[in-house]
Structure prediction request, 827 residues.
Amino acid sequence: NVVGPTMPVRNPVAQGPVNPPAHTVDGFVEAFLRELNFGQGVLLSRSTVNDQYLALARTVQQYLVAGWLETGARRRQGDRKIIGYLSAEYLLGRQLDNALMATTLGEIAEEAMTQCGLDLARLRAQEIEPGLGNGGLGRLAACFVDSLATLDVPCIGYGIRYEYGIFRQTFVDDRQAEVPDSWLSLGSPWEFPHPERQVRVAFGGRTETTTDEQGRERTTWIPAWDVLGIPYHYMVPGYRNGSVNTLRLWSAKATQAFDLQIFNSGDYAEAVRSQTFAENISKVLYPEDSTPQGKELRLQQQYFFVACSLHDFIENTLPRDFDLRRLPERIIFQLNDTHPVIGIPELMRILVDLKGFEWDEAWDITRECFAYTCHTLLPEALEVWPVELLGRLLPRHLEIIYRINDNFLDEVREAYPGDADRVRRMSIIAEGPQRAVRMAYLATIGGSRVNGVAELQSQLLREKVLPDFSELWPDKFTNITNGVTPRRFLHQANPLLSTLITEAIGPSWVTDLEQLRGLEPYADDAGFREQFQAVKQANKERLYRELRARDGLELPRHAMLDVMVKRLHEYKRQTLKLLHIVSLYDDLISGDVSPADMVSRTFVFGAKAAPGYYMAKEIIYLINSVGRTINEDKRIEGALSVAFPANYNVTLAEKVVPAADLSEQISLAGKEASGTGNMKFALNGALTIGTDDGANVEIRALVGDDNFFLFGLTEPEAEQLRADGYDPKAFYRSDEKLRRTLDLLGSGIFTGGDASASAPLVQNLLHDDPFMALADFRSYLDAQTRVDEAYRDSDAWTRSAILNVARTGFFSSDRSMRDYLDRVWLA
Ligand code: T68
Prediction:
C-alpha cells in the first residue's frame, strides 16, 4: 500500500533534520516572512489576516519539526512499547497557543509580530479550533496525548479527520440552530497529509471457506466495495522537552473518483455517486453525546479508522520482518469507549486469515493488545449493533465475533455448570426481536483490562454494568480517575494565576502538579489572598470583554460568577440550575428579598444539545427565555444576570474556567461517569457545588468538606427512591418553594405570555422527572444558601479557593497516564 518508497539518502549531511530558525526575534521574523512570501505567495503589505495566521502557524511549526523528526527516529530505533490510542474523537482546541507554549516562543512571537506591524492576539483569534469531538470523551483524548508527549511516552493517537466537526451552535428566537463547522475552509496549517501512505479498507460482500492440503479451514473475505484511508499527521508536542508525538487522523477517499463512461453519457450526478458515498465516511462527526444512534454510517466510520490504524501499525510502523507473535511487546491499543472495539475482530482477521495464525494463538495475542475504557453508566449509552447490520457491512467480522462468543460461553459453562441464565446474560449476542452485538462485552472479553474513569463509576461498572464479568475476572477491572492537562487549562488559560503560583512555589508544577500542595500555607497569607482575588477579578473582566465582543453581552463587573458549562443532557440537570435561578427571581419579584440583600450572581451557561434531542433543546429554549426576562427586568436592579453564549467550545472554556467563582457539578448521583470540567474549575480556584457523583467524590475528599458544597441524594438513595416508586408530584405538593418556582416557570411570564411554551419541560418534571431534579431541589437550594453565606466572607472564600488549587494536583492527566502505564499498559 505504500506508494513511492522512501529514497535512500546519499548525502550524510541530510540524514538528520535541518536546524530550526534561530530562537530569536530576528530569526522568527525571517522565518515568518519566508512563510508569508514563499508559503502563502504574498507580500506582507498585501497579506490578509488569514495569510498572516497561516504563515505564523507554519513558522512556529518549523521550531517543532526537528523535535518531531528526532522523536520519530528515536522511537523507530528503540523497542519500547507504543500506546496506540484509538479514539473516534479528539477535541483538540486551538493549536497555535499550545505550540507557542510548548516551544517557549510566546514572547518572541509577540515581539516579532509587533516588528512586522501585526498584533499576535488578532492572529491567534483567526484560528478555528478543530472540534473533532463532542465533549468530555474527546477532550480527554486530547489531554491524554498531551500528557504522553510531556512524559516522553511513545504514543500514536489514531482517529478520524472529520471534514466537519461538532456543529456551530447559534440561537434563533432563543432556540438552538446548528450550522456546519467547516473548520478546514480557510486552510489547515497544522496537518501533514500523506496520500502516498493510503490504506485500502473493504466493506460488505461475503466469505468463503475452503480446506487446504493439511485439512485446515481457511476463510477468505470477498468484499463488495472499498475506500481509501489517507492519513493526516499532526504534531503533539510535549511541554518543553523536545519530544513530539504523532496524531494520525484518517480521511476517506473514493477508490475511483468517478465513472468516466457514465460521465460521458451525461449523467454527472450518477457518475460521482459512489465517490460521494465513500467520502461521506469521514465527512462529519456524529453530534450525539452519550446516546449513540446505531446508524450504519457510524459503524462504517468506526471500522474505517480502526482498520486503517491497525494496518498502519502492523505494515508501516513495525520493522519489516517483525515476528507478530511478539506484537503485545510493541503495542497496546487503548479503546476509548466502545467506538473502536471492532478492532478486536479485525486483529483476529489479520492474524488468522491474512497471516496464517492458528485461532488460539491469535486470540492470546489479540487479548494482550487491547484494553478498554468505559466512560458511562447510562444503559442507553452502551453501544449495540444489530447482527443484521454488522453482518451485512462486515460479514467476516461477524463470523469472528460468533466464534469468540462460542469459545467464551464454553468458558462460562465450565465455570458455572448448569447456569443457563448466566450464559444468556453474558453472551456477546443479545437475543430478542432484533439480535444485537454488545460491544462493551466484546471489549471486556477481548481486552486485557477494563477501566472506569472515576472511583465511583468503576465501582458501579463492576457492580451494575458488568457484574458477571467482574465476578468471572475480578483482576481484569481497575479504576483510573480522569485528569486534565495543566498546560492548557492552567498555564495557558490562566497566565495570571500561573505567574502567581510560579512566584510562590517555582515553575515545576507545570509538569508535576502535586507540587501545588506547596500553595497551602499561602491560603493563610493575607497578601497572597489579595493577589489571588485580583487575578480572579482580572479573569472575570477578560471574560466579560470576550462575551461583549463575541456575543454582545453586557455583564456587571462585580457579582459572583456561577458557571455551568457542559453538554446539555437531562442527567446533568441544567434544569435544576434553572429552577434555582427562577426561585431567586421569585424571591425578588415577590418582595421576599430585596435586591440589595441578595448576593448578586451572574450565571453563565454553555451547552450544546444533540440536534435530535428534543428535551435538551426545550431546556436550552427555556434557559434563554428565563435569562432574557431576568436581564431585562429593571425591578431586580441587576441582582441577577444570565449569560448563555452560543457555541461553547474549548476556546471559550479557556476564558470561562479561570473566571468562575462557583462550579456547578449537579448531575444525579450515579449518572456522571467522571466529569473533567469539575477538575478544571477546581484547579483554577472555583469552589464546587456538587452531588456525590463521578470525580466530584474525589475532589471533595481532597479539598475537604469545608471547601466544597455537597448536596443531594447519594447513588444508593436515588436507587432506593426509584425502587420505591418515585413520585415527583409528591415533592411538588409538599414543598411550597418548589411549587412556586415550578408554577412561575410554567406561568408563561418567561415565554411572552404563552404558558404552553414551557409546558414540555414543566410537565416532564411533574410527571416523570427521570433524573430526580425535584427530589434534590430542596437540598440544592439549601446548599446554594450556604454558598451565599460563604461568599459574603470574601476572605474565607478566597482561602477556600486557594485550597482548591493547592489540593487538586491529583487531577493532572500526567497522573492519569502514569496510572494507565502502571495498571494497564505495562502491567
Ligand atoms: C464522558 N462521555 C462522560 N461521551 O460523560 C464524562 N458518547 O463523565 C467523562 O468525564 C468523560 O466522558 C471522559 O471520561 C462522553 O463524553 C461522549 O462524548 C460520547 C460520544 C459519542 C458516543 C457516546
The chain has three domains: 19-78+95-128, 79-94+129-481+819-825, 558-793. Residues 134-137, 140, 288-290, 292, 375, 381, 453, 482, 672-676, 694 surround T68 (CB under 6 Å).
